[in-house]
Amino acid sequence: MTKQTVDLVLYAAYVIPVVPQGVVLEDAAVVTHDSRIVALLPSAEAQQSFVGVEEKRLDHHILLPGLVNLHTHAPMSLLRGLSDDKALHDWLAEDMWPTEKEFVSPEFIEKGMMHAVAEMIRGGTTCCNNMYFFPDAICDVLGRTGMRGAVGQGITDMATPYGSGPDEFLAKAEPNLKKYAPGCHDLITVTMAPHSPYTVGGDTLLRLDSMAKKYDARVHTHLHETEAECRDSEMQNRSSMCCHKSDQKLRPLANFKRAGAHVVHCPTSNLKLASGIARVAEMLRRGVNVGLGTDGAASNNTLDMFGEMKLAALLAKAETQQSTSVPAAEALKMATLNGARALGLECEIGSIEVGKRADIIAVECDSIEMLPMYNAVSHVVYVASRNHVSDVWVNGKQLLRNCELTTINETQVKIDVHQWAERIRIFRNAQHQQDGYT
């Protein structure tokens, strides 16, 4: 029997394909070629049928689909820890917005995005849904590093470092909507990203909604971050991906289901900013698609999707007082396939299935804190951390090999981060001194 030559054969102790949900394959192989998964089968059969240009044995690992960070402001990694323990509005008005006004530029975005991508790849995140300024710089970093991403075209009614207002933001968005229209790029898609109901008015929403429909783009926004906003907003009727959604009322859930909107649950950020606890179990019960996001490193303060999975599962149990709420398999699905579905990429990523893109991560399961292991799915959610991720592939290209980044100069990233941090520290000290005299 002639063996088929392929790009890569991964032999693993365990494979969690996510579809079917909860299934664990033991001693299995994932075969990839031309950026896609071409076979998922027992290792013995793979050895008989395929020869890989590269073959890798992962005898103490679990293979998973890459994680999808469905909401982040990735370049804000440069503002990690800048301000903590404040209410959302105070945190924004007193700390984030003044610092962004002073520093945000294409260079800031490029360095911050590179920093964030390095962190996300190391933690098993293969796709991020980003909302921030200067989207061209973000697209450039994604292209250079090989990470998959949806890039938000940020829109507000007020001036930002990126532009003077909605007219300019919409004008700048259109070229990227054309360039990265669905199916035009292997790694990058573009979304319309109105910041929130408190920064974007109805007329602007109608204009961006029309543009999104014209180019078949998703809409990505903050919604229901605080109790007051839950009372005032009707934005869920116009949005595809609504982040935070921390209200407790049943009527908005019915509206979400009826509108076909997706919810992005950011448990760590919601808790840290005291924004409330989302009714995730009830959303899922009602058929609302719920994915997971970290939010930015300035409010989380990490980009750790393993942490979000575990916290989402535990919070749901606390909120419902039911230990069966959001079991491990559901939490893993939220971090993978549900995120892909919200982006319109469920036929491309989010599970290990034949025909899908080869976005795959390997999680080591033989370290002392990972033993013993009786249920691989539960272990991934409740025991594993991002530090157990050893290898990452996106679109069939290896971006992390034996815990080493392959497309990013980590030493240079650290140098750049330290330089930016020093500039920001000097500015903040001067700002505090000035405030002390008033």
Would you write up a description of this structure?
The chain folds into two domains: 116 residues, Urease, subunit C, domain 1, CATH 2.30.40.10; 276 residues, Alpha-Beta Barrel (TIM Barrel), CATH 3.20.20. α3 packs across α15, α11 crosses α12 and α12 packs across α14. The protein is 39% helix and 25% strand. About 3% of the residues have low confidence. It has an eight-stranded mixed beta sheet, covered by helices on one side. An eight-stranded parallel beta sheet has the order 5-6-7-8-9-10-11-12. It starts with a strand and ends with a helix. The longest helix has 27 residues. The radius of gyration is 21 Å and the shape is globular. The chain is of the alpha/beta class and 438 residues long. It has 15 helices and 16 strands.
Give a short overview:
The protein has 438 residues and is α/β, with parallel strands linked by helices. The chain has 15 helices and 16 strands.
Question: How does the SSE layout of this entry go?
Answer:
Layout: E1 4-15, E2 25-33, E3 36-42, H1 43-49, E4 50-65, E5 67-72, H2 88-103, H3 106-122, E6 125-132, H4 135-145, E7 148-155, H5 166-179, E8 188-194, H6 202-214, E9 218-223, H7 227-232, E10 241-244, H8 250-259, E11 262-265, H9 267-272, H10 280-285, E12 290-292, H11 305-320, H12 328-334, H13 337-342, E13 360-364, H14 376-382, E14 389-394, E15 397-401, E16 404-405, H15 410-436
Parallel strand pairs: 1-4, 5-6, 6-7, 7-8, 8-9, 9-10, 10-11, 11-12
Antiparallel strand pairs: 1-2, 2-3, 4-13, 13-14, 14-15, 15-16
GO molecular function: deaminase activity; hydrolase activity, acting on carbon-nitrogen (but not peptide) bonds, in cyclic amidines; metal ion binding
Pfam families: Amidohydro_1
Protein name: Amidohydrolase-related domain-containing protein
